[in-house]
Amino acid sequence: MDDFGFVLANYMQDKTLTGSCNIKPPLSYELQIDINDHEQQFAWSECDQSADGKEMTALARYIIGIVQEEKLYKELPDIRGYYE
Questions:
Q1: What is the DSSP secondary-structure string of 53-79?
Q2: b/e map of 25-41 (b: 16 or more CB within 10 Å)?
Q3: Whose CA is closest to 82, among 44, 28, 32?
Q4: C-alpha angle 79/67/44, rounded to 5°?
Q5: At residue 44, does pLDDT exceed 90?
Q6: What pLDDT, in 10s, does the model give residues 7-36?
Q7: Mean of the pLDDT values across residues 54-61?
Q8: Which residues contact 12 (CB under 8 A, 6 or more apart)?
């Protein structure tokens, strides 16, 4: 999805998102979009089942999938733990 696709998909508009989650450890997302000198920041958790939450989680998973297919990503060492 190019910059034009983000604009058409309305990702530059405000979203109603929540970061609260009762799953431990929670999977949370942060996304910053910069297009044509316009910046939009979003933060939400995997527990957000609103229409906006589901849409943004789908976008995040799409982006993560693209990154995980890159050779440089595949060469990284395995993850050992997490931060709270």
A1: HHHHHHHHHHHHHHHHTSHHHHTSPPP
A2: eeeebebeeeeeeeeee
A3: 28
A4: 75
A5: yes
A6: 556 766 788 898 888 888 778 999 998 878
A7: 88
A8: 6, 33, 35, 38, 40
